[in-house]
Specification:
The complex is a heterodimer of chains A (453) and B (229). Chain A contains 12 helices and 10 strands. Chain A is of the alpha+beta class and 453 residues long. Classes of the chains: A alpha+beta (453), B alpha/beta (229).
Amino acid sequence: MGRLFWKFLLAFLVSLLIAGAGVGTVVWLHNSGEQERTPPPGGPGGDTLIRSAAALLASGGSAAVGTWAAELVDGRTQALRIVDEEGRELLGRHVSAGQIERARADESAALPGQLVRRVVAPDGRRYLVFLPPELLPPRPHFHRPPPPWPPLAAVLLAGLAFSALGAWYLAKPIRNLRWAFEGVAAGRLDTRVAPRMGSRRDEMADLGRDFDRMAQRLQGLVGSQRRLLHDVSHELRSPLARLQAAVGLARQNPQKIEASLDRIERESQRLDELVGELLTLSRLEAGTGTLRREHFDLVELVASVVDDARFEAQAKGRDITFAAGDEIIIDGSVELLHRALENVIRNAVKYSAEGSSVDVSIQSEAQGQSVRIEVSDRGPGIAEQDLGSVFEPFYRGANANASGGFGLGLAIARRAVEAHGGAIVARNRPEPGLTVAISLPLARPGAASMPAA
Amino acid sequence: MATVLLVDDDVELVSMLREYLEQEGFDVATAHDGEAGVHAALDGEQDIVVLDVMMPRLNGIEALRRIRAQSRVPVLMLTAKGDDVDRVVGLELGADDYVPKPCTPRELVARLRAILRRTRSADSAEAASGPVLAGPLSMWPERRSAEWAGMPLDLTSTEFNLLEVLARNAGRVVSKSALSESGLGRPLARFDRSIDVHVSSIRQKLPAREDGQSWIRTVRGVGYQLVRE
């Protein structure tokens, strides 16, 4: 149990005691007021008894009252006395002269609440019906209040138990959260609170869910970073292994030195490219705070990329067609979008069959709210389940040839497009072939609200 | 002349290594993915297989598992430097040794020769010496076969070599570096767990002793000992 538990417990207990003391005081005050109004000595039932006996005597005479009184055996009825003018007791009960004297005095005083009544029987005889106070059974409930300690202790215990329960109920999720935070801090990113929260539904459970979401996101990010690092080290190793093989060949046979040097040069250039692309990717991943924005015609940019790529494509027996309308002014980074388009278009050229052409089109969409660029090749396409992962760093399709780039081009393209608030998707064409569609928002009411890549 | 099968998805690297190995007097076969590699490794033509761990589709570990399910052909793994998991898993699955990648071709050739020497030494020199006997264990180096109390043991060539060294020195403690020299044909590197992994898989192939202990005793800090009784 943590400190918080004890604090909650104390707070609950104190408030419970204060409330208890308040209620107790009110009840006590009420009761003491009640006790000041002294109840009749015979109790509320005493008066009724007298009236009943009197009424019975008045209507049914002494015989009726005798039968009635014999039926009732409780202490109060046993104390009932009915005396005639000569001082004889009607029910044959013992009565002292003093009792009669006092009853007569009470009757003549006619004070309210006196347990005495004068009755005239049908036969004309006069009787005095009364309850001598000394003969009444004792009434402990009224006069002696029960000792206050047992109920007080019970209240205290119950209060303690409920306070402990309440404190535990409040403190437990916080302890769970603390455990989870410690777990994540210790590097266990798979820590989740939800299973420990049970079926709880309140702000604490919401907080737990928020925590889980955060942990999930962290886990995803760290996992992807780790994967990237793993892939990077592998990608760096491949050119290094080739470098070493080339050096080995040159050592083994000096006649091969020229060819080996060519290879070594090629591999070191490839390493340089790889490092450059990795830097671009990591700059894009780190956020786009340093992005330089300007207004420019996107159609013109696409056209220039297409022209550059067409020159290379035609050398390899492929062509690129370009379909565009009027200029489309966009606010963004020329450098990044150029790079994204170049990667996508070159990729398409690389995978298209010889003699075929790559189709590039650009058009505005949604009443000029966004622009859509589509690049379609007539290559083999990719497996449906891999469509989502082509934009992952170092993804290489099953049809990729081993020497064709690092698999970073499309990853860079996606980061660049996302940095502009756009989206990039790939889908297979029926022909077959692959279409990569880039959509970029044009209207940017809040130019500052650029989503992090 | 030995035939080496190179299995690696890096086409350019494989062609350079092939050139190098051919110059060194090997016959070289190549495969560029795990499935083709397994297929080629099992055709009975190969004296040794060099298997890259990182390959698309069927990776090297899985390829090794499939090869070992059917064959005891010596396998040298190319593992990423610093990736101990691949290395240990590979050795546990019955790889004979590993070379960190990138490595110089010279290093690769040295490892290949060491493994080939071990697997072939039996064919010539020690053939006449007859079976090695140690307790319930009988080993015939010339046939590369071993029996435990009459039951045949299925050992990879490295495991066979290590067990042979232990059997020839049965009852005595053999240091890890001696095991590495004569079993793997190379000096023991620092932090090298290969010997331990191999010994552990040999242990799993031997039946337990009556007292529940292993027949191969670990002498901490020194090496291993094959118990006679």
